[in-house]
Automatic annotation (TrEMBL):
UniProt entry tagged with the keyword 4Fe-4S: no
Superkingdom of the organism of origin: Bacteria
Name of the molecule in the record: Urease accessory protein UreJ
Membrane-spanning segments: 47-63, 70-93, 113-132, 144-163, 175-192
InterPro entries linked to this entry: HupE_UreJ
Signal peptide coordinates: 1-23
Keywords: Membrane, Signal, Transmembrane, Transmembrane helix
């Protein structure tokens, strides 16, 4: 495990287990907002699968291209969140969320050579769906804290997928195709939920 992954995991664990001092009023809402953001990505299979799949897929590219993809991904995750918070309606949101896992899994499984522009565009589009859903689900929370929490957990999940991909590619290179197919099938199974 790299130092960055250990640090991010430690921070996530620290935030998840910290309790408010409760010496003043208002801490319950603040604490609940951060906790809701931290745990929300872990509660839905769609988001969990998509974040791990995105990290896995991003690791298959060269470092510069991978950074571009992940920068676009997190920027549009936050952008989608902002739009959702504003209450802007978005057709096919649920379908887009599920297709994120299906398409990313298939791209991993087929090892399709995708140009940097297309990879960045797909990553940004996938993130928009997920961010938008998070923005709509923020009711009753402090938006900044909820966003901080869900971005931290999302980043941890993406880094976990990235790390698993690197580990698999060095030890069992052929397993990547199977993992991609499993991700795609898990995505397809979400259509029935």
């Amino acid at each position: 495990m790299t130092r960055k992954i250990k640090l991010a995991s430690g921070l996530l664990l620290s935030f998840a287990t910290a309790a408010p001092a409760l010496a003043h009023t208002g801490h319950d809402t603040v604490h609940n907002s951060l906790m809701a953001g931290l745990t929300h990505p872990l509660m839905g299979a769609d988001h969990l699968i998509a974040m791990i799949a995105m990290g896995f897929w991003a690791s298959t590219f060269a470092a510069k291209q991978s950074r571009s993809m992940l920068t676009a991904f997190f920027a549009l995750l936050l952008g989608g969140f902002t739009l959702g918070l504003a209450g802007i309606s978005f057709s096919f949101m649920e379908t887009g969320i599920v297709l994120t896992s299906v398409m990313t899994g298939l791209l991993i499984a087929t090892r399709k050579n995708v140009t940097q522009g297309l990879a960045v565009s797909l990553a940004a589009c996938f993130a928009m769906f997920h961010g938008f859903a998070h923005g709509l689900e923020t009711a009753g929370s402090v938006p900044f804290l909820f966003a901080t929490g869900f971005l931290m957990t999302s980043a941890t999940l993406v880094m976990a997928g990235f790390a698993v991909s690197k580990l698999v590619s060095h030890s069992i290179p052929s397993a990547s195709r199977l993992i991609g197919l499993v991700i795609a099938m898990m995505g397809v199974s979400l259509f029935s939920i």
